[in-house]
């Protein structure tokens, strides 16, 4: 009887040990688990739940909006006051900082199809690239949701945003007119950029989500490339009922003091909205929510 009891106890202890080992193995397996993501360049094995992402494109806000940590990001994203707080602990990197990115130990790298050194980055971590505007701005967010294993969360935000933006558009147009047209511009050292309906700077919110029209001339010249560079002398030809200026306050904006600018009908009537270009640059969920709030406040006040 004594030997039988000892044998039974040994079996129980052995089973418990086996159970503990199995649990540890399962935990390790989950940490290292990968899934196959179908990127625009083919299948890529990516972590099922990435935790350290480097972003070398315009998608940092998409990643942060889905609750995934960005450990490395380019300077443009860092300059956005909308994204700054969430990216406070992320290192500033460029596509040339191969060694620095290696030191960050990313488990996923996201870039643009034009990003340099992609072959080197693929040796560091699974690397996925996107072509800007190949997908529309909402499809792009859902696609990044798929990449990060958070497609459901991404789609939920998209559905909610579309409803909120449509409601806001209807409220604004009820006040300023159903057929009101809006022109979006940015000023650069070499001229003025007139922007189409999918070039960041609030264009997606205005034209696609809220349903505002753009002047026919703007539509014609931005249809192919998404934007058109013009001179200050012809700006008036492209300005609709309202003018949105995506403005860099650390650049020369003295053109706004010229008589030529002041004679534009929308300017004379006070129908000019000025937005911080760094806050308006991207079209990720965090930035889009900021832009939507901006338009509601500016158009309705």
Automatic annotation (TrEMBL):
One of its GO terms (biological process) is iron coordination entity transport. Gene3D superfamilies: Nitrogenase molybdenum iron protein domain. It is found in: Cell membrane. Residues 51-301 form the Fe/B12 periplasmic-binding domain. Its main location: membrane. The keyword Transport applies. CDD domains: FeuA. PROSITE patterns: FE_B12_PBP (PS50983). It comes from the Bacteria. Residues 18-40 are annotated as: Disordered. Residues 1-19 form the signal peptide. Pfam families: Peripla_BP_2 (PF01497). GO terms for cellular component: outer membrane-bounded periplasmic space; plasma membrane. Belongs to the bacterial solute-binding protein 8 family. This is Iron complex transport system substrate-binding protein. It comes from Terribacillus aidingensis.
